[in-house]
Each structure stands twice: as C-alpha cells, then as structure tokens.
Amino acid sequence: MADHYEVLGVERGASADEIKRAYRKLARELHPDVNPSPDASDQFKLVTHAYDVLSDPQQREAYDMGGSGGFGAGNFGGFGDIFETFFGAAAGGGGGGNQRGPRSRKERGQDALLRVELELNEVVFGSKRDLEIQTAVLCETCQGSCCAPGTSPQTCDICNGTGSIQRTVRSLLGNVMTSSPCGTCRGFGSVIQNPCPTCQGQGRVRATRTAKIEIPAGVDTGLRIQLPGQGEIGPAGGPAGDLFLEIKVKHHDIFSRNGDDLLATLEVQMTDAILGTVVKLQGLDGEVLVEVKPGVQSAEVITIKDRGITHLRGSGRGDLKIGVQVVTPTRLGAAEQSLIKEFAASRKVVPPHLAQFQQGLFAKLRDRFLNV
Q1: Residue 210 belongs to what domain range?
Q2: pTM of the entire structure?
Q3: Which of 33, 109, 178, 260 is the most exposed place for a label (fewest CB within 10 A)?
Q4: Same domain, yes or no, for 277 and 305?
Q5: Interior angle at CA 93, CA 89 and CA 99, nearest 5
Q6: CB 308 within 8 A of CB 317
Q7: Tens digit of pLDDT for each residue in 288-345?
Q8: Domain count of the chain?
Q9: What is the CA radius of gyration of the chain?
Q10: Is residue 205 domain-shared with residue 274, that is, in the same domain?
Q11: Residue 118 CB: number of other CB atoms within 10 A?
C-alpha cells in the first residue's frame, strides 16, 4: 500500500495545516466531477483515504507506529467536509444531503453614516437635533410582507418549500447528493405572485424621515457616535441597521479647544496691565468675570475653573484659560508723550537688556498661540 505521506506529497513531520492544504489542492485536481480520467478517480480515492488517516491524531499516531491505516476503519468524514466545501454538497451512500431549509426574506438593513457639524458652544453641554435622513423605511402598504394587500406568499411548487434542489450523482465512492438553491424561488421556499405595488415586493421604500438625536457634551471632531437601530430598514421589513454620526466642530473666532479646556486671548491696554482691572467677558455659556492683577505680563495665563467643556466621560468640566497680551500704544499725542516721559523719569532707569532664559515664558507662549 502506498505511503500516506507520499500520496499527499508532504513530509512525515508535516503539520495538520500542511496536510489539509495538500489534500485540498489534490482534491481540486482529482475529484471525479472535475477530472473524468479513471486514473484520477483511483488517485482521488487514495488521496481521500490518506487524508482521513493523517487528519485524525489517533489514526495518524497508530499509522506512524506501523499500523496499516487501511480502509477497514470506514472513516470518510474528512472527504465529506472537504467535498461540501468545494462543491456545495454532502457525501452519503444514497442518503439525503444537509437540509438547511429556505432562507428568510428578512435581512438586516445597511448601516448609515451622517456627518454633523456643531458649533463650539453646542459641545460645552451637548445638544439635541432633529435630523432629516434619506433612507429606507418600512412600506406602509404591505408592512414588510412584500405582497399586495389581501395576498400572501405561495409555496414554491418546484422545491416544495425547501428552497433548494437536490440531485444524486453516481461516482466510484457511491451516490453523492448535491444541493443548490432553487432557481424559481431563489432559495426562499415561496414565491410572491402579487408583489406590493408600492414597494415592488421589497417590503421597504426610500423616504425622508426625521430622527431625534441627542449629542453628548464633550464630543470632538472625528468622533463617531453609534445609534443602534437608526439606520436603514432591511428587505422585507428586516431589522434596521445602525446610524453613525461623524462629528465636526466648527471653527470659532474667539475660543479654541485644548482637550476639555477652552483657550482665549485677552488684549490688555498698558495702563490696565500696570494698574490692574476687572473685566466682564462673554463666554460660550454666559458672562465671565476676569480679574487682571496689577503688573500682569504678556503671556501670563488667567485660569477660570470649571468654565471649559463638559467631560465626555465622567462629570465636571475643563477650565477656561485666558492668555494675556499687553498692548503697547503706537500713536501718542503730545500730552500723552509728556506724561509717559514724566513717568519714565520718575523711575530708576533700567535700559533694555537680555534677561535670563525663562522656559516657562516660552512654554506659555507656545501653548497659547500654537493651540489657538
């Protein structure tokens, strides 16, 4: 008897995956339905038996120890699996093939993607929207039955409601039962003789519907929100797919975002920077009282706690961080110049000079301007 490993063309130490791949390759070439040569049929029989033995760990171990691995075992399960994989049939000695039954007309609908633009102030606390969506909805005439009112699907008289057609093929291995979808009913087991005139037998129609959605606070550009069951209705009134919202936050002229913090720049006149002041500003969610302390310097940051964006996960809010920019006047009248000169003369003269490097100053400048 030929060596099983030689029949499959693999080494004795071949892995289970290597043996399976070798068998599949040979089965495609030698199966009687593909290769009518008598030699091919005999070779296919040997290949199938070799695979049956070597694919079973216990039989392979016994074979490697000197067992015959002959046909007495009667195990052709591997052939049945691979035959069904290649040819859509189940092997058997005159028995029936795998009976899966007719397929349902109802299928899950497709998912839908919708892009939503938000103003920055909507991100602070979240928002509610009524969105109009062009999608597939349930047909109101047939309610998903696909049939005209007063009618129903009729059992297919070709496959008798099974959804498949079976035939027996004779081979050297015995009778093989093959199964394929019924061409008359397309595998449904029933036919619709009177389709619904509104949806043409689809059970759904294209329409515009309004979806009420709630967008949580803290979302950011690029985030996708999944709304289960808000997508398209499936064929024959099948379950709806999901709706995905892709968020885009619009640019704001005053405020920008850094994580859950809001950033802004406050221009302060030189006199206010010297003497200090209190200013009332309009934030995204109402007025904000900002205290500018005397002697404030450019690039200093004033932090207003809990006036940023609500955290997407968890409670609380980020901060409002205001970078100060001291504005030096460029045009002065004669009286103003006289006052400035008098002020300068009253102070100790400190000429401009290079100061010690301040890492914090540049870090603040970078954070304030690069993130705005």
Answers
A1: 112-148+197-249
A2: 0.60
A3: 33
A4: yes
A5: 40
A6: yes
A7: 999 999 999 998 999 999 999 999 987 899 999 999 999 998 888 999 888 888 888 8
A8: 4
A9: 39
A10: no
A11: 18
